[in-house]
Amino acid sequence: MIQQADTAMYRAKAQGRNGICFYDPTMQAAADKRLTLENEIRAAIAQSQFMLYYQPQVDAQGNVISAEALIRWVHPVRNMISPAEFIPVAEETQLILPIGAWVLHEACRQIKAWDKEGRRIHHVAVNVSSKQFRQGGFVQQVQQSLLDAGLSAERLVIELTEGSVIEDIDDTVAKMQALQAMGVRISIDDFGVGYSSLSYLKSLPLSQLKIDQSFVRHYDDSNAAVIVETIIAMASSLGLDVIAEGVEAQAQVDFLKAKGCLSYQGYFFSRPLPASEFSFHLHQRQ
Questions:
Q1: Of 122, 120, 123, 110, residue with least CA distance to 157
Q2: Which of 27, 71, 75, 192 shows the smallest number of beta carbons within 10 Å?
Q3: Alpha helices (H) along 124-249
Q4: Which residue ranges make up each domain of the chain?
Q5: 48-285 has CATH 3.20.20.450 classification
Q6: Mean of per-residue pLDDT scores for the chain
Q7: Burial class of 222 by CB neighbour count within 10 A (0 to 12, 13 to 18, 19+)
Q8: Quick check: helix, strand or coil at residue 230?
Q9: Chain mean position to CA 137
Q10: How far apart are CA 50 and CA 107, in angstroms?
């Protein structure tokens, strides 16, 4: 009975606190499923079950100029598990920290491997969670990943969400300035859907804004079109690069190009690819 009451209490907290939640058996099933997933994530880290896929980022002529690294989990029984399923649990349990450290190290290693193959691209963008960015040794972690790979800092772009950026603005500025001093660039992911504010944009050492795919998808909606145009104009006035994600049709490319956005990412150009396939794709494009 106490265990069931405890389960109900955590469900009440998850729903926003200051509420009442009655236990039912489906809660225990959900809790058991989550615990199983947590244990499987721990095993995945220990057994190197994660891998990185890379989605090309192209210029206005369709040339591959960079890529975004995207984590995938190849489960020994369930095959490919979506990041949407395991990343939230990894965030809650702090397992995102060793996973994030591995992603940084592996992305840097892969860039260097492509260089040796003669498949050079400008940079790879790596998504960094709020918890990973907030840890005390994050800047040193980035520096060590670059050193281990023998890679120059401008080959790495750190992607952060708007929410993680404004969480602790003093800490954010200090870390961004340290990364910028190294040569690492910072991009704000999913720009326009969170806490967009000129006040923080002008105070942070950013390099790039990434237009969220929801605006690209509804480019033919007048409100979305105005937002896209505003983001591009804002980036231009602040001296920032801008890239649009979720591009899936030529009409979207034409719209973005007409508005002044000249870098794109999406299924229209390529799905995310394993490193070997990305190398072949890059060879074909070059």
A1: 123
A2: 75
A3: 130-134, 138-149, 162-166, 169-182, 198-201, 213-217, 222-237
A4: 1-46, 48-285
A5: yes
A6: 91
A7: exposed
A8: helix
A9: 19
A10: 12
**Structure tokens that stand for 118 in this block:** 């003669």
Least confident of 146-150, 158-162, 271-275: 158-162
Q: Parallel, antiparallel, or unpaired: how do β-strands 156-161 and 185-191 relate?
A: parallel
DSSP code per residue over 47-103? TT-EEEEEEEEEETT--EEEEEEEEEEEETTTEEE-HHHHHHHHHHHTTHHHHHHHH
Distance of CA 84 to the CA centre of its chain: 12
Whose tokens are 């939640």? That residue is 21
CA distance 82 to 118: 32
The pair of structure tokens assigned to 239 is 């001296």
Q: How far apart are CA 197 and CA 234, in angstroms?
A: 11
- In 3D space, the residue among 252, 256, 214, 253 whose CA is nearest the CA of residue 235 turns out to be 256
